[in-house]
Specification:
128 residues; 34% helix; globular
C-alpha cells in the first residue's frame, strides 16, 4: 500500500459505456482501516460521483476524488445492498478515502453528506 489505502501506483483506467457510466479496465484495491482490501475489479461499472446534472457545476462527477467514488460504488453495489456491510460503514470508508486523497474538507463534507442522504432512501440505509 502507498501512503493511502489504495494499492501502489493505482491509476483510473476506464472505458465509456454511455453518457454517465464507465467500465473499469484496470483493477485496483483499497484497504479499509479494519476491513479486508476492497477490489475494484475489471469490468465493474461506475458512474464516478453520482452528482445530479444540476449540481455538476459545483461538484464535477470526477476529480481528485474519483478513486474514492469508484470504491464507494463498489461498496454500495456489492456490499451494502447485499447486506455484507451497512450503508453507513460504506459511507465511512468513502469519507476516509476522500481524506486520504487530500480532498479539501468542505468538498469532502458535501460529498459525504450527499451519500448519507442518499442512503436514507435505500432499504436498510437508516440502520446504524
Amino acid at each position: 500500500m502507498g501512503s493511502t489505502g489504495f494499492s501502489e501506483g493505482t491509476q483510473v483506467v476506464v472505458e465509456q459505456i454511455d453518457d454517465e457510466n464507465w467500465k473499469v479496465c484496470e483493477p485496483f484495491t483499497y484497504e479499509g482501516q479494519e476491513q479486508l482490501p476492497f477490489a475494484v475489479y475489471r469490468g465493474m461499472e461506475t458512474d464516478f460521483a453520482s452528482v445530479p446534472r444540476v449540481f455538476v457545476w459545483l461538484l464535477p462527477r470526477y476529480g481528485a476524488y474519483t478513486k474514492a467514488a469508484m470504491v464507494h460504488d463498489l461498496l454500495w453495489r456489492e456490499y451494502a445492498c447485499k447486506g455484507r456491510m451497512s450503508y453507513r460503514d460504506a459511507d465511512g470508508v468513502f469519507r476516509r478515502a476522500l481524506r486520504e486523497l487530500e480532498v479539501p474538507f468542505l468538498r469532502r463534507w458535501m460529498m459525504w453528506t450527499a451519500v448519507r442522504w442518499g442512503a436514507l432512501v435505500k432499504p436498510g440505509g437508516r440502520q446504524g
